[in-house]
Each structure stands twice: as structure tokens, then as C-alpha cells.
Amino acid sequence: MGFSKDFLWGGATAANQCEGGFEQGGRGLANVDVIPIGSDRRSIITGKKKMYNFEEGYYYPAKEAIDMYHHFKEDIALFGEMGFKTYRLSIAWSRIFPKGDELEPNEEGLKFYEDLFKECHKYGIEPLVTITHFDCPMHLIEQYGGWRNRELIGFYKRLCRVLFTRYKGLVKYWLTFNEINMILHAPFLGAGICFEEGENEEQVKYQAAHHELVASAEATKIAHEIDPENKVGCMLAAASYYPYSCRPEDVWEAKKKDRGNYFFIDVQSKGAYPAYALKELARNNISIDMMPEDIEILKNHTVDFISFSYYASRVAAAEDSNVEKTAGNLFPTIKNPYLQASQWGWQIDPLGLRITMNDLYDRYQKPLFIVENGLGAIDIPDESGYVEDDYRIEYLSAHIQAMKDAVDEDGVDILGYTSWGCIDLVSAGTGEMKKRYGFIYVDRENYGEGTLKRTKKKSFNWYKKVIETNGEDLSNQ
């Protein structure tokens, strides 16, 4: 059976991790620009430490990243050579509206993405565009408090209307917010939120989440009005939780943790706050300030498909103070003794992808789209820049096979697969360059050293063959 003939194979990046050009083309400052590499990164990402501008003594990797702003033609040509059917990228909001609250967009920014999309189409590549991949103009954070402020819904709607109008016919696949559930774990990164001393942080996070959920539904409405061909998806940082043991308390804890993530997608896909979420919010004295029209917009403008990232499964226990923890995507989890881990401690679990796909498809009955999956690893190039990354091929091959099993054996409907960081880029979690995901090596180090030269890794030709055979040949030959 295998994948459909129009299955969308490709790769994924985010503007703030690859674009650079932070003050070129009229672009304004954004939250993602002012997050440095180093020990303070986590406290800034989580909104505990305020950093609203560049400060002495820090290195800010997003300023230049891998300078795709000037290299996109070269990079897209390489994606075309691999045979990409789609390329997932994101818009830098402050490139379109430098401050975020202007009435008119920045033409230079609009033209940049228009040229980029046209370059994709030259190679038969369908753009898959994330409207907001953690980007928020700094002006909206300083003047309005980020997504805690309802006014951001209006600014976001203006952005969406401009994008859907300008790129009609160039882009038909859209994602509203990247990993929307990360607002709970990285609120400055996910929603431009910094906390004031003594305020109820959970209240602030869930109110901001409500604003993003309403904005997402508004975007879906506008997209379908401007072009009925548009397909709009939500995006979840996914991974099913395993109970640490078969103790009923551990099983219940895993269910609760899953629900904590599904809550966002339940709203975006089913159109209403689920009963369990309303009960949980009430238990925690969280009161969402909701307008009557919010109920209608959420109900009537649900997403067309469910997209998600998957890197590793997670483990939950009712009592987790005495169990070993390991790293995960922006937050830690309990270590699973049955799994190997990456160099960054992320647990490698291909079957977990199949389990997660089944959980999501059973729950929503909408097409899925895997828009992030990959292995962050230290690559050691030879003198010509070539990397023999068999470990990456092994990881991706096992996960693509699991995806295939979910389709062939379980009947899951899936639109496509874009591996994360198809070209080396800056890590969102750590700010490092040495944590590499790509099929293409970029000569760039953690603190900006290097020539930015692009070199194909061994995995480049492997993935090209995977796409050519529509996922039938996964061998490392």
C-alpha cells in the first residue's frame, strides 16, 4: 500500500533559527532575537528573566543564524536536488510588521517571502508556512505585554489577512502557531510573556493561550474566505506519555499529562474547551476572560489538519521525585530504561511515533502532518566538510518506517513528513549550532565562527532516495 502518490516529503526550518538578517529589509526586533546562548537562556525563554534588548557580554545566535536571508536561493536549490515536495518555513512577523501594530505592512519584507516562495515553486516545492514560529515583535511585548493582551488578536488578524492576500496562489498550506502547547513551558518564547513578581503565572499563561486559540480560529476563517483552496493546520509538540509503571496512579498521571497537551488541539480541532480542561482550570482558580463571540469563532472555524513535532516519547509518574530524569524538547521527562538516548539525552523511540500518530488520529479523525522529526547530533566533518552521518540515517529510517506502519497497518491518514532542520540551524532549546539536524552541513559554530559554506552530508543522498521511492527504500546503501 505505502504512501499516497501525492505524499508531501520535505524538510522544516524556522525563520528565527536560520534566517538571520535581523535588521535588514526593514525588519524590526523580535523576542527570538534577544535570547542568547548560555546559562541565562532558559530563564529568559521561560519569562523569569527580562531581556528586551541586546546586552553586553552575551552572544545572540539568531542575529545571523545561518544567514538564509542571503542564501535562500542556494539552499532551496539543494532542497530541490533532494526532491522535496514541500518546504516548511516560517514568517518573521517583524519582517512584515516591524513593530507589530502598524496599519501598513513592510513591502520589503513581503517581497522577500514572495521571492522565496517563487523560488520554491521553481523546483516544484509546495511551501508549508508557519505564520508564527515563536516570533513576536518586541514592540508588542514592551507596549502590550505580549499575548497576555487581547489586542494581539487584532494585530495577528491583520498579519494573516496581509499574508493570505499577498501569497494567494503561492501558498496553500498554513500553520497558525508553532507548538502552541509550549506556551506552558516557554512563555516568553511562545507568547512574549515575562512575569511580574507575585502574579499568578498559570492564569497569565492560560489567558494568553486563549488569545492565541481565538487568533488561530480567526486566521482559519480569514484563510478560507480569501482562498477556499487554503488548508490550515494547528501544530502540537507531541509525544504520548507512558506510565512509569502499571500502578493505576501512574497510568492516571500519564493520561493527565497527555490531556495537558491535547487541550490546545481539542479546542482548535473540535471547536470548544473540553470538559476536563474547564474542570482543571476551575480547580486551579484560573478564570479565562472570554468574550461571547470567542465561543462562536472557536466553534465555527476549526483546523483542516493536525500537524505536530515528534522527537521522543515521554514518561509520567504520580510520584516522580525519586526517579531519574532526562532532557526532552524544551522540558525534561522521566528516563525510560528501555530506550537509548541522543547526545542531548532525548530518548529515541520510533514506535512511540506510531503510538502518538494513532493517539492523535483516534482522537481527532483529521489528516495528520508530521512537520518536525529528527536527531540533534554532533557532526564531525572531514577536511572537505563531508559528514558520514549514519546515526542520523538510522534514526530517520526507523521513524519513517514507524510512520509507514501507522499508515499501512493502522489506517492513519497522513499528508506529509518534513524532517526538522533539513539544513543545519540554531537549536531553539540551547541556542547551539553544534546540535545539528540537517542533511546539509553549514560551516558555522556556536559563537558565529565559520564560513557559512554548505556541504551535503551522507544523509542528503539517502533522503533523496527515500523521496524518489516514496518511502519504499529506507536502506542505508
Task: Give a structural overview.
- The strands form 5 sheets. The chain has an 8-stranded parallel barrel, surrounded by 4 helices.
- Helix 3 (68-82) packs parallel to helix 5 and helix 13 (350-364) packs parallel to helix 14.
- 39% of the residues lie in helices and 14% in strands.
- Strand 11 and strand 12 form a beta hairpin.
- The protein has helices at residues 15-18, 41-45, 68-82, 93-96, 107-122, 138-144, 151-166, 187-191, 201-226, 248-270, 275-283, 292-300, 350-364, 390-408, 458-468, and strands spanning 8-12, 86-90, 126-132, 173-177, 231-237, 241-243, 305-309, 314-316, 325-326, 333-334, 340-341, 347-348, 368-372, 414-420, 440-442, 454-456.
- It has 477 residues and is of the alpha/beta class.
- It starts with 7 loop residues before the first strand and ends in a 9-residue tail after the last helix.
- The chain contains 15 helices and 16 strands.
**Which class best fits the helix and strand makeup?**
alpha/beta
Using the coordinates above, name the CATH class. Answer: Alpha Beta
Strand order, largest beta sheet: 1-2-3-4-5-7-13-14
* Rg on CA atoms, Å: 21 Å
Protein name: 6-phospho-beta-glucosidase
Active site: 372 (nucleophile)
InterPro entries: GH, GH_1_N_CS, Glyco_hydro_1, Glyco_hydro_1_AS
GO molecular function: 6-phospho-beta-glucosidase activity
